[in-house]
Amino acid sequence: MCRRRSPVPKGVDPHQQPDAVRRRNLRRLYGITPEQYDDMRARQDFRCAICKRQESEIERRPGGRPRKDGLVTLPMALQVDHCHGSGAVRKLLCGPCNRILGNASEDITRLQACIEYLRSFGAE
């Protein structure tokens, strides 16, 4: 089951401890450490597991609530892909590829139908 995002615990100022928040979020949401995430990045050659784009080529837009210190926080270029049924971590994906899977509800039949639809209009 997909883990729900919850607010940062009381007494923790996320604007002052971004590394601690990253560690906590990776552990809470996916059951991995930042070191495991970084190891996954290196094993994937810092590329999306689907489209193979290098993480330096992936556009990242600021997200979340503004920081008190005024600095802009960018999300990770590669997102943790996980099975929404079991919660098992699969690989790291760019945002667009991760959203494609999510929007299709990880339904292979639906994704295949999308491919056939595009091919019917000459897409390769």
How would you explain this protein's 3D organization?
The chain is 36% helix and 7% strand. With 124 residues, the protein is mainly alpha-helical. A two-stranded antiparallel sheet has the order 1-2. A hairpin with a 6-residue loop joins strand 1 and strand 2 (89-93). The relative contact order is 0.14.
List keywords for this structure.
single chain, 124 residues, mainly alpha, 4 helices, 7% strand
Summarize this entry quickly.
This protein is mostly helical and 124 residues long.
**Which percent band covers the strand fraction?**
5-15%
Q: Kindly state the number of beta strands.
A: 2
Terminal Cα span: 35 Å
Share of helical residues: 25-40%
Query: Which runs of at least 5 residues are low in confidence (pLDDT < 50)?
Result: none
- Global morphology: elongated
List the helices and strands and how they pair.
Layout: H1 18-30, H2 34-43, E1 79-82, E2 89-93, H3 95-103, H4 108-120
Antiparallel strand pairs: 1-2
